[in-house]
Structures are given as C-alpha cells and as structure tokens.
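Appendix B. Chain record.
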Amino acid sequence: MTLRRGLVLGGGGITGIAWETGLLFGLQELGVDVTTADAIVGTSAGSVVGAQITTGITLEDLFAYQISPPKPARLASIGPNVLAGFALAMLRARGDLEAFGRNVGQWSVRRAEAGRLPSLEERFDAIRERLPIQEWGPGQRLRVTAVDAGTGALRTFDGSDGVSLVEAVAASCAVPGVYPPVPIEGVQYIDGGARSGSNADLVADCDRVLGFTPVDRSVGPMRTAGQLLGSTPHLVVSPDTASVAAIGKNVLDPARRAASARAGWAQASVVAPLAQEIWS
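Structure tokens predicted for this chain:
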C-alpha cells in the first residue's frame, strides 16, 4: 500500500518563512526529507516556502539565503491599529468565518485605497525576490490559499487556472491592513490566514500529514491545524521556546530572519524522530 502524504506550511511572516526553512533543512540533513510530500498546502509565509521547495530550489540554498544579511527595506509590523482592525472584524463576524474574511478584507481594501499601504508594485517586487524560480512546479502538488476580500470565501491556486505563481503567492501573503489586497481576474484577494493559519483541512484526505505552523491558534471561528485535521494521522510542529525567542515580537522584521532560521534548524533535532515515525 502506498501512503499519500501531506505537508502543511502555515503562515507566520518573514520570520515564519525563515523558521520553516530552517526546520525543513534540518530535517533533511537528519534523513527526513518531507519535501517529497504528495500534497502541499501553503498559507501566507508557507506559500512562499511551498513555492520554493516545489520549483526545485535546494533547501541548502534556501537556508543560506535566510541566514544572509537582509537587504534594506521598509519595516512593516502587525501593530496595535492592525490588531484592532482584526478584532473589530472578528467581533462583527459573530462567529462566521467567511464574514470575518469579508470584514477584514474590505477594511484592507479601504486602507489600500486611502494610500495607507505599500503599492502593489512594491509587493510584487518583494515576492519575486523570494521566488528565484517563478513558474509552478510540476505535478500541481502545491495549493496556495487566499481569501476573497469581497465574499470571505477561500480560494486555492495550483497553476491549473492560469494564475501565475507570483500572483498566487502575493495574494496569499497580503496580510490585511499591512499589505495591499491583490487583484486577480477582477477579484481582490487577501492573506489565506484570514481563514486559517494553516488551512490544514485541505490535506485532511491524505493518509499522513505533517504540519509546520509558526502561528497556530484557535480564535473565534478559526481552528488550529490539529483541529482541522481531526482523525487524520498527523504531527503538527510549532516553534519551541528557543524559536519563539528567536522570532521575537515582530514576525515581519527581516533582522530576525537569520536567528529564526537557525532556531528552526536546531529544533529539527527534536522533531526528526517524531516526523520520521509519522512520515514513514
């Protein structure tokens, strides 16, 4: 019997990309290569990592990039005003997950129209820098998540619908209130994390699932990766104490990238036996 294995790469900002990369690289060095997953779901930061590993870039090269000095860039943050916007959108949603997506999506659209967010050109440049190979990988293994800012509905991209990899990843990384919604086919999309930090239920039909979730919380109608996977045999890994310290308070701070990557790499030594057990 051939097992169908799923990999969940969750959201978590710039430091989340680094932590996931370090963890994946550390596991590979220890003989557990989970990039061979049959199905991969990437949300926000996880969409970047998913795109990188499915387009043929080696984990060694990806890790080297994460620990290299970052280029000067405008520092973004999920500050008090943004958190207040999230909280108000959640309150008005009254437990309805799609209503939350609509509320936070339209709020982000208004902020973008008022010129309070970076330009789309700036965001696409940032995404292209993170994706040295900008074509979808073979086999349509990767599903990139985003949320329709008008309806709050989830949409996934896998390259089969003509949407470019750069567009899909930019949409998945469009943190509401921080980065502008991304227009695709006349529809504005925001971060897939507006539905779930992991969207792990998209691979719940696999026989075994590994989830790497920098931010995995149950808030209002949102559910953790473990809750979404239910009875599917799975292992969900989140940052340990050392990794949390390395990540720091601002997940969008490039200065924390190298420390986060190294912390993920170190955490792999603890995760490897458990990952090997579920993966094989």
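Further analysis of this model is presented in Appendix C.
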